[in-house]
Amino acid sequence: MSGAEEANTRIAIDGPAGSGKTTTGKLVATRFGFRFFDTGIMYRAATRMAQLQGVAFTDEATIVHSIEESVLEFVFDDAGDFRVFILGADETDSLRSPEVDHGVSTVAALPVVRQLMVQMQRDIAGDDQIVMVGRDIGTVVLPDAELKIYLTASAEERARRRFEQNRSSGIRQNFDEIVTDLKARDVLDSEREASPLRPADDSISVSSDGKSLEEVVDEVAQLVKAAE
Ligand code: CDP
Q1: Domains located in the chain, CATH noted
Q2: Which residue, judged by its Cα, is nearest atom 4 of ligand 1?
Q3: How far is the CA of 20 from the centre of ligand 1 (A)?
Q4: With contact defined as beta carbons under 8 Å apart, do 132 and 11 qualify?
Q5: Is 108 in the pocket of ligand 1 (CB under 6 A)?
Q6: Is 109 in the pocket of ligand 1 (CB under 6 A)?
Q7: pLDDT tens digit sequence for 182-225
Q8: Beta carbon of 216 within 6 Å of any ligand 1 atom
């Protein structure tokens, strides 16, 4: 194909927590003028909703009912940013708390919750140029994406990045807690029955270990150009 404007390139980036999917994905999207969407926000939103309603993270029927009753609302604001409303209140800024981090993989393992989220994610992607990041984008959400990246990094490197990220957003959590949480999420995400985290057969693995953000973005950008 001749150029970014004409290609309907959909890029799936999957990988474990803290591998740099969101930061890398956003920069790649900006570079090519594509839209960007982080699907993790949706599972975090469902978790925050359950937390606010005092519903157990395993109570699928109640969580699904609340989603269907629009207790949870997803809105793109005028700036194009994705915002999460729970019972009318904007909860977007509370989705990265340690409590949500801790419960999100339990909620994300609920199969009917996933079905609802995946449908919304496919609607958001449409047929457009987009970089979509998550755990099952290449395997389930957009199985015919033109480019699938599986982004990895060692657990220590991922924990270190999360620690820095949290610190700069004012979230206090000690390093060991982050490592434990991250590893627990890796296990839950990879071993669940409903669309577990795994590389799609036709994905390209990119490791971000020992590389600067710019190097990883360049590497992915080369793959995007090759896919167009
Ligand atoms: O930013 P981080 O990598 O820590 O997590 P996230 O992308 O915000 O995703 C939070 C959690 O949501 C993951 O640990 C998964 O349990 C779940 N998730 C999922 O199951 N499927 C996706 N497509 C995206 C996230």
Answers
A1: 1-34+130-228 (3.40.50.300), 35-128 (3.40.50.300)
A2: 17
A3: 12
A4: yes
A5: yes
A6: no
A7: 999 999 999 999 999 999 999 999 999 999 999 999 999 999 99
A8: no
Q: How far apart are CA 128 and CA 107, in angstroms?
A: 29
User: Which whole-number Å values give the CA distances from 80 to 75, 132, 175, in the listed order?
Assistant: 9, 15, 34
107 Cβ inside 6 Å of ligand 1: no
- For 17-28, give one letter per residue: b (16+ CB within 10 A) or e: bbbbbbbbbebb
* Residue 212 Cα to ligand 1 middle (Å): 23
Q: Is the CB of 134 under 6 A from ligand 1?
A: yes
pTM flag (> 0.85): yes
